[in-house]
Amino acid sequence: METKVVILCGGMGTRLKEETEYRPKPMVGIGGKPILWHIMNIFAYHGLNQFVLCLGYKGEMIKEYFQNFEMRNNDFTINLSQPKDITYHSRNTLDWTITLADTGASSLKGSRLKKIEKYIQDDIFLTSYGDSLGNIDILSLINFHKRHGKIATITGINPTSRFGEINFKGDNVISFREKPKSVKSLVNGGFMVFNKEIFNYLTEDDECDLEYGPLEKLASDGQLMIFKHEGFWACMDTIRDMEYLNELWNSKNAGWVFN
């Protein structure tokens, strides 16, 4: 069985409302492609091409994008008298298998994960937010997780903005605190690896979050580890972030792209 990548795509993205009023945040574009496509490419570069997308707010737009992926990304000729007779003039080479799962319009992240439990067969799986990019060494992340034998691994980054604060000793997470008023240590940048035991910490209740509660409990149980990433990382949280990421892409300085 292949290790699957679960991407959380259901939030409303209220801090990016200029864009997310019309589309879900994972569909906001960088260089003409949704940020979701860029995130999936990070994993695919490392040989992981089995995806589960946790849909919520405007999830039908993500379904439509992948259902019509060939038309959206290629020139084609169509015979209108036989509309199913379509000739594509270049072919998609992405060998991705994607499960698009409706996990509720207002569910929090823990609930969304629990609702896709039935699609996870392997002992471990990866999880990513639908708005974060980085040149994460995914294979090293997975190997690190397998070596320590705990339930959960989160990737620690050192951004200039605010996310869940991680206090650690060596590679052991001592405590996890979501969005503190002042950040003095590494923070959770997503790109997580979980054993299936994570589902015992989650419920399908829409109010079940991931950071508040489950990760805190995993830390207190000694089951949460941190993979330290010192390379590029960025998040699309605001219009300014979107413009910055597009500037990097257009100037060929996109730090999340592996050559």
How would you describe what is shown here?
With 259 residues, this protein is an alpha/beta fold. It has one domain: Spore Coat Polysaccharide Biosynthesis Protein SpsA, Chain A, CATH 3.90.550.10. Helix content is 27%, strand content 28%. It has eight helices and 16 strands. Strands 1, 4, 7, 8, 10, 13, 14 and 15 form an eight-stranded mixed beta sheet that branches. The protein has a two-stranded antiparallel ribbon with strand order 2-3. A two-stranded antiparallel ribbon has the order 5-6. A hairpin with a 2-residue loop joins strand 2 and strand 3.
Brief summary of the model shown:
With 259 residues, the chain is an alpha/beta fold. The protein has one domain (5-250): Alpha-Beta Complex (Spore Coat Polysaccharide Biosynthesis Protein SpsA, Chain A). It is 27% helix and 28% strand.
Layout of SSEs?
Blueprint: E1 5-9, H1 17-20, E2 29-30, E3 33-34, H2 35-45, E4 50-55, H3 59-67, H4 69-73, E5 76-79, E6 82-88, E7 97-102, H5 109-115, E8 124-129, E9 132-134, H6 138-148, E10 152-157, E11 165-169, E12 172-177, E13 187-188, E14 192-195, H7 211-220, E15 224-228, E16 233-235, H8 239-250
Parallel strand pairs: 1-4, 1-8, 4-7, 10-15
Antiparallel strand pairs: 2-3, 5-6, 8-14, 9-16, 10-13, 10-14, 11-12
Tags for this model:
259 residues, Spore Coat Polysaccharide Biosynthesis Protein SpsA, Chain A, 8-stranded mixed β-sheet, two-stranded antiparallel ribbon
